[in-house]
Every structure is written in C-alpha cells, then in structure tokens.
Amino acid sequence: MDPPVADSATAAPPRRAALAFIFVTVLVDVLAFGVIIPVLPHLVEQFVGGNVSKAAWWVGVFGVLFAAIQFVCAPIQGALSDRFGRRPVILLSCLGLGADFVFMALAPSLAWLLVGRVVSAVTAASFSTANAYIADVTSHAERAKGYGMIGAAFGVGFIAGPLVGGVLGDIDLRLPFWFAAGMALLNFCYGLFVLPESLPPESRSARVDWSHANPLGSLKLLRSQPQVLGLAAVVFISGFAQYAHPSVFVLYGDYRYGWGQKEVGYVLAFVGFMAIVVNAGLVGPMVRRFGERRTLLLALGCGALGFTVSGLAPEGWLFLVGVPIAALWGAANPASQALITRQVDRRAQGRIQGALMSLVALAGIVGPAVYAGSFGWVVSDASPLRLPGLPYLVAAAMLLLAVAIAWRHAHPAPDAPAVSEAAT
C-alpha cells in the first residue's frame, strides 16, 4: 500500500484558469453532444432509406450502446488519471472527441456512424477525471460550489446545444458534427497551454489499478470504501431518476398537454435555465447556509416534490410549476460529490469518480427502458391504469428512497482516510 497523502483540502488554492478550463471542457462536451441531438436521428433515417420505425430502433441502439461503453470506460479513465495525472487524460479526451466528430461528419454509412458513436462514448468518459480535478484543486469549503459549476455547464449546454444543432442542421445535417469537432479541438489547444496538472507526482498511484479499472472492479472499490457506499447508492438513484425527462418528456407533453416541437423547446429551455440558476447561483449559498448534508436532503426532497407535481399536473401550466421546484434537486449532485471526495484519499479520487460515473452510465442503460416502458404501458389500450404521469411518479419515489439513504449515510468526515489495501 502506498503511504497516505494529504487531502486536497491542504492543496494550493483553486487556480482560476484551471477551473475555468474544466468548466469549458464540460460545457464543450455537453454542447458537442447537444448539437447533434436534433440531427442524429435524421441522419440515421437517411442511412436506413427513410424508414422511421427502423430509424427509431437504431437510435435506441445508439443510446444504449453509448451508455454501456461509458459504463465500461469511466473507471478506466479514472484509474489512468490517478496514475499519470489528470491533465493528459483530459487533453487526450478532448483531442479524441474532436477527431471523432470529424470522423462522424464524414461517415459514409450507418455502420461507420455507429463506429464513430462508439469512439465518442470512449473519449467522452472524461467527466470522472474532471470531477477528480475539481477535488484536487478546491478546498472542502469550496468543493460543492466547484461541482455546482459543472452542473451549470450542463445547464448551458442543455439549452444551447440543441438550439445550435437545430439551426445548423437546417443548413446541412453534417454541419453540427463539424461544429462539435471544431469546439472540441479548440478546447484541446486552449487546454494545452492553460491547463496545469492538479495531481503532483508524489500524490499519484504507483501503478495503474487495473483491478478496479472495470465496472465490476469499480463496484468492488466502492464496497471497499464503506464511508462512501451509501452516498454512491444516492448517486445511482439520483442518476436513475434523472432519465425520466429525456425518456418520456416529448411524448408526455404531446399526449397530455398537446405540446408541439415549439412548446417542447421552450419548456426544455426553461428547464436548462433553472438548472443554471441553481448550480451557478444557489449551490454555494445553500451549502454555506445549510451544510452539505442538509443541502443534499433538501435537494433530493425538492426533486421528489417537483416530479410529483409534473406527474399529477392535469394542465400544462401546473407542470411548469413543478420545474423550478425540481430544479433545486440540481444541488444534490454537488453536495453528494463534496461529501464523497472529502472522505476519500487524494490518490483514489480518479478511481472513485470513475466508479461513480460508471454507476451513472448504468442508470442510463436501465432508466430509459423503465420510464419509456411504463409510459407506453399506461397509455396503451390494454392498460387498466390511466396515469400518463407514472414515469414521473416513479422518479419521485426513487428520490424519496434516496432521501432515506442519504439521511443515514450522508455524514461528512473532517479528514480523508488513507487509501485502503483494497483500493490500491
């Protein structure tokens, strides 16, 4: 076992340029994938000869495959960053993502487009390394705020990505891929000159921990860290609940409220705007006022309440009332990440973050099937239950379960323990 090292709370103060780069990196990743959301199904439809049913099936395959590869690759990137440092892993991810979007822009067939999507899933697993970077360069007091910045990047990307992709896609279906490639490659060049390393050589693992650089090994790693296992369950459940919106919102809005593409776009922009407000403006004050534990419990409770309102709302305006309530749930991830990172040795941060991202990817494999399947069942003629908001009520129930788990396990530790033998 390697000797213990100091927690990141004792590290140098946050470096503004580095934190800004991490924000931009996450934003570019989200934007890059957001811009292709409006055009990827249509490009697939072209490749299958205009058959909508067949195109929908292939889009589903793309989504499940992407999540499955993230499930495998997130712990690998985390382990590599613990051994070689955060900077090279993040930069290679940016470079690989940019090159791959060029590949997809030139893809001559569905098979090659699928290959490009696979490579995108591999290179986009850098969120775990970005999270570890935040843990490296922020103090305990500022860590939740740092993770809130990551959430704000997701919000901005959620709004701007599909909007930009829709505009560019109207010009040419391939243009959004070129735009995404340009952003990723520019971000690589920017980081090459700006991004400092956050993990000094003396704080790195002595070897690549291949035993935990896989999904099963990463779960074993979490089991070896009992102080974070309960919080890891909260992260998984929260990630599972998060797929309610992308899985059924478009169909649900049309079925229940008669919302077309324009109305759906406005509501999604509202959702993204509220996410920015919470993550960029409220996370820091909430953690300072309530502490990380109570912020986590409050955020999860607001998410459950917001989803309940969305699932039961008979009118569209009542659905919108639930959006800002559910948006406060956005504080849960920064709070839980801050609690987890302060209880883990610095040299294990990459592996722990990789394991957590693997759990989120697993939720991305299971969640859409549960929500889409439950919605399809309740609106079918054979269903005895006429409750189109059932997927949202399922998500609300999951978040209430997360509240119960967090109540028991969300206890901050003043100092991070040394990495256990199982973790190294």
UniProtKB/TrEMBL annotation:
Residues annotated as domain Major facilitator superfamily (MFS) profile: 18-414
Membrane disposition: Multi-pass membrane protein
CDD domains with a match to the protein in the record: MFS_TetA
Residues in the signal sequence: none
Gene3D superfamilies per UniProt: MFS general substrate transporter like domains (1.20.1250.20)
Cellular compartment(s): Membrane
InterPro entries, per database record: MFS, MFS_dom, MFS_trans_sf, Tet-R_TetA/multi-R_MdtG-like
PROSITE patterns: MFS
Keywords: Membrane, Transmembrane, Transmembrane helix, Transport
Ranges that cross the membrane: 18-43, 55-76, 88-106, 112-134, 146-169, 175-195, 228-244, 264-283, 295-313, 319-340, 352-377, 389-407
Name under which the protein is recorded: Tetracycline resistance MFS efflux pump
Organism: Luteimonas lutimaris
